[in-house]
Structures are given as structure tokens and as C-alpha cells.
Amino acid sequence: MDVKNLNEVPAFITKDGSEIRELLAHRNSAIRNQSLAEARVPVGGSTQEHHHPKAEEIYYITHGRGRITIEGEERDLQVGDAVAILPGKRHKLWNTGSETLRLLCCCAPAYEHSDTILTNL
Length: 121
Description:
This protein is mainly beta. It has a single domain (about 10-120), classed as Sandwich (Jelly Rolls), CATH 2.60.120.10. The chain is built from no helices and eleven strands. The protein has strands at about 10-15, 20-25, 35-40, 50, 55-65, 65-70, 75, 80-85, 90-95, 100-110, 115-120. A hairpin with a 2-residue loop joins strand 6 and strand 7. The N and C termini lie far apart (about 40 Å).
């Protein structure tokens, strides 16, 4: 049985600049076709615009407020919002609130630096 606790998994910085804690993925569990991580964006911070040629993502906001742009379309986000991001779609996330923006990020296939293409250099 694979059970991971958020407080016990190490954080790392993704290629887009967000801090994530990978809860379940092929690197640390029996999971092979997807990954689940918590991402954090500090107050006033943002990710770099990017896309993933292979992975589709789901973002689920658990703390804070933010704003996302996907292919130029913008939307404000709050706790309880889930966002679908299809492969190849350019996206960027900003923290617009007064606390750390925290979200669960599901990727299928699992997150890989090599599948992250920065588009806003």
C-alpha cells in the first residue's frame, strides 16, 4: 500500500519555477501513468508561461487566490476551483491573494522536466 503524507515528501522546483511536493508518481510509488503533487506559488509570484507536449493537467485550488491564463484566455481562481489544461496549451499561473497559493496538480503522464517547454523567455 502506498500512502504518502504531504509533510513528509521533499519539495523541489519545477522547470516553470513553482515549488512542488510530489505525493505520488513513478519516482516514489507504484503509480506509473500519472502523478499527484501539491504546488505552491508565493504571494506576488507566478509560474513561467509554459506548455507540456504530452501531459494533460488538472489544477485544484486548495488555498489562496490566483489567476490563470491558458492560450491567452484569463480566469480568476479561488479555493474549490478545478482547471483542465490540455497537452500543448500554453499556461501561466499567478498568485493574486494575500497568502501562499496552494493547489493539487494531477498530470497524466507524470510530470517530467523534459515535458515542460518554457514559452515566455
